[in-house]
From TrEMBL:
GO cellular component: plasma membrane; side of membrane
InterPro entries registered for this protein in UniProt: Alkaline_phosphatase (IPR001952), Alkaline_phosphatase_AS (IPR018299), Alkaline_phosphatase_core_sf (IPR017850)
Protein name: Alkaline phosphatase
Active-site residues annotated for this sequence: 155
Known catalytic reactions: a phosphate monoester + H2O = an alcohol + phosphate
CDD domains: ALP (cd16012)
Alphabetized PROSITE patterns for the sequence: ALKALINE_PHOSPHATASE
UniProt keyword annotations, A-Z: Cell membrane, Glycoprotein, GPI-anchor, Hydrolase, Lipoprotein, Magnesium, Membrane, Metal-binding, Transmembrane, Transmembrane helix, Zinc
EC class of the enzyme, as a word: hydrolase
One matching Pfam family: Alk_phosphatase
Length: 545
């Protein structure tokens, strides 16, 4: 750890210690004020800590208020699961294909909430009994999301971890921890670059693709192909606005189109046309000009480069779905000037769904007899969380789940490793419905999904009481959940995220792991990269040459 990193980590712990101290003091004050209550009426204190909750409104709607599963139900369920588990065996053969699904912002509470929400949408008795498609994957692990100089990571440094196999610094992508934020010179030094699992796949002769509903130059997908000292340097004007020479310091869009491994990616689908167009060119949909100052039209550059390589460029859903995947070896689809719209707005914007983009990508990539690597990001989960739009975040999670489902259905579990995880979690708590407060809190309700910070803060009244939200329209998809601390946007959490996996060597992704371990496990399974590989071990054990 460098001195700067150590100082940064120490500052964080100092801040955290202060917060913990405040909580301890508050707890002490609370205990001091309730000692008499505890002595005189212990039952009242227990009731305050574990209040009687009202029947959730969704249970009233479903008519399940008086229904329940008896003990026999749970015993039978356990018996079925045990029989399933003992029949499961690790698949220990080379993974020909790999699909890496990244639900950005998909924290553990988000997974739980989305599962329940799915069950409610399917009119199940309760909701909790539902299962997400990746819930049913045979192997599950947990990933630690901290970065080199930050306890709470962002989508940039975590992308370096889960795609390049090394921790990095906050806001940097595809570079070692020796590169500090905004250090252009260090960024341009190849000695400071870390290669991605996508590049490993290309070097092994596999076809590759990236799919996202964010900008294709955004932090998560950029981890597959770029080396950048600041995640915001998506086009040259952002580099120049930071005081650096964009002719020397390559931006992310330029690296995608002009440098390896970006220029060799077979499928590129997502948003973000603005980073590829010069300021002189108007966008095809939005009445806005491109952002590039260098005059480069990188979309045209891509089209010319792929002219004799069976390449196709598309800009909307209709064009994507009309692509003849049999005759297409390279496909770039940029469906929005900026990020793609949320799923509830996609139809009006003529944007494809994440599921549709995934299906087209797999159809093209699987033609390669050597196999393929595909990175798919559901990035709008994170965007909805930043806006504290919990309902929209859950809808986006279910759209992401559909993409995972089609990816598993289109491939063979015996030769295709599928990994589902998250880069950075969001600070949310499940689940949203009104919960009544005990009488000692003035009977003001709150929602069971809330955020630690963000734009959903409700100012307390002059009497110090929190706002009564009974009149809020919580069915609105853009409803802002309650937050504890007011901020312009909700921020990421530093908690662990889940890893779901199925296919060859999926069992390597179980337990509590550093996020940077994930691509090394993928490399082992697919026999790609410079690290440990199954094919080497197999050759050693069998004496094969």
């Amino acid at each position: 750890m460098t001195r700067l990193q150590e100082c940064s980590r120490n500052r964080q712990w100092s801040a955290i210690s202060s917060i913990l101290l405040v909580h301890v003091l508050l707890l002490t004050l609370h205990v001091d004020n309730t000692e008499a209550m505890q002595e005189n009426n212990g039952d009242s204190l227990e009731e305050a800590m574990h209040p009687t909750l009202p029947v959730p409104s969704f249970m009233e709607r479903s008519g399940s208020v008086n229904s329940y599963e008896d003990a026999t139900h749970w015993h039978k369920q356990a018996k079925r699961i045990i029989k399933t588990k003992i029949r499961q065996h690790p698949i220990e053969q080379k993974a020909k294909n790999v699909i890496f699904f990244l639900g950005d912002g998909m924290s553990i509470p988000t997974v739980t909430s989305a599962r329940i929400f799915k069950g409610q949408l399917e009119n199940l008795t309760y909701g909790e009994e539902a299962a997400l498609s990746f819930d049913q994957f045979p192997f599950t692990g947990v990933s630690k999301t901290y970065c080199s100089n930050s306890q709470v990571g962002d989508s940039a440094c975590t992308a370096t971890s889960y795609l390049c196999g090394s921790k990095g610094n906050y806001r940097t992508i595809g570079v070692t921890p020796d590169v500090q934020e905004s250090d252009c010179s260090a960024q341009m030094d190849p000695a400071n670059h870390v290669t991605s699992v996508l590049q490993w796949a290309q070097e092994a002769g596999l076809s590759t693709g990236i799919v996202t509903n964010t900008r294709v130059t955004h932090a998560s997908p950029a981890g597959a192909y770029s080396h950048i000292a600041h995640r915001n340097w998506e086009q040259d004007d952002a580099v120049e606005n930071s005081g650096f020479d964009a002719a020397y310091c390559d931006d992310i869009a330029e690296q995608l189109i002009l440098k390896s491994p970006g220029r060799d990616i077979n499928v590129i689908l997502g948003g973000g046309r603005s980073a590829f167009l010069p300021k002189e060119i108007m966008d095809v949909e939005d009445p806005k000009r491109g952002k590039r100052r260098d005059g480069k039209n990188l979309i045209d550059t891509w089209i010319v480069d792929k002219l004799y390589k069976n390449g196709k460029y598309v800009t909307n859903r209709e064009e994507l779905l009309s692509v003849n995947t049999t005759d297409t070896d390279y496909l770039m689809g940029l469906f929005a000037y900026d990020h793609m719209d949320y799923a509830d707005k996609a139809k009006a914007a003529n944007d494809p769904t994440l599921e549709e983009m995934t299906r087209v990508a797999v159809e093209i990539l699987r033609k390669n007899p050597n196999g393929f690597f595909l990175f798919v990001e559901g990035g709008k989960i994170d965007h909805a969380h930043h806006a504290t739009n919990a309902k929209r975040a859950l809808h986006e999670t279910l759209e992401f789940e559909k993409a995972v489902k089609i990816g598993r259905e289109m491939t063979d579990i015996d030769d295709t490793l599928i990994v589902v995880t998250s880069g950075t979690p969001s600070v949310d708590i499940p689940f949203w419905d009104l919960v009544g407060s005990p009488t000692w809190m003035a009977s003001l309700p709150y929602t069971t999904i809330s955020y630690a910070n963000g734009p959903g803060y409700r100012q307390a009244g002059k009497n110090g009481k929190r706002k009564n939200i009974r009149g809020d329209n919580m069915e609105a998809i853009n409803y802002r959940q309650i937050t504890t601390v007011p901020m312009v946007f909700e921020t990421h959490g530093g908690d662990d995220v889940l890893i779901f996996s199925s296919g060859p060597f999926a069992h390597l992704l179980t337990g509590v792991l550093d996020q940077s371990y994930i691509p090394h496990a993928i490399g082992y399974a697919a026999c790609i990269g410079q690290g440990e590989k199954f094919c080497d071990d197999y050759a050693h054990l069998t004496g094969a040459r």
